Amino acid sequence: MFNEMFNSVRFTYDSSKNEFISLVDYANSRTYDHGIVRGFFVTNGKYGERAVMVVDGFNINLPAHLLNKVKQIRANADAVKAINNNLCGYHIRTYEDGNNIIRYSVDLYDIKPE
Fold first, then answer.
1. pLDDT tens for residues 52-101?
2. Which one, of 23, 77, 67, lies nearest residue 42 by Cα?
3. Which residues constitute the domain of residue 32?
4. Domain count across the chain
């Protein structure tokens, strides 16, 4: 019970020197839309809790609709271990919301071990 509630497995990638960037700015500054996830964390600031995805060199602020998914991943020891073993990828996608505004999101996928 407590293993599930108080996960002691942590991400191993050091993101302390990463640059913070919005998902939109990150997507618009790259020629590729996918990569390897190095970790996730949650910040608490002026606008409440925000999910952050860690990739090589960047801490990417994610949309609010991904907050619960990030919390679930962080609470799952197997998911954290898989990320630490470079087995989680991300793909940035766009979608059109109900007001015809283009929005950005991230889909995660399994990377097969070599």
1. 999 999 999 999 999 999 999 999 999 999 999 999 999 999 999 999 99
2. 67
3. 12-110
4. 1
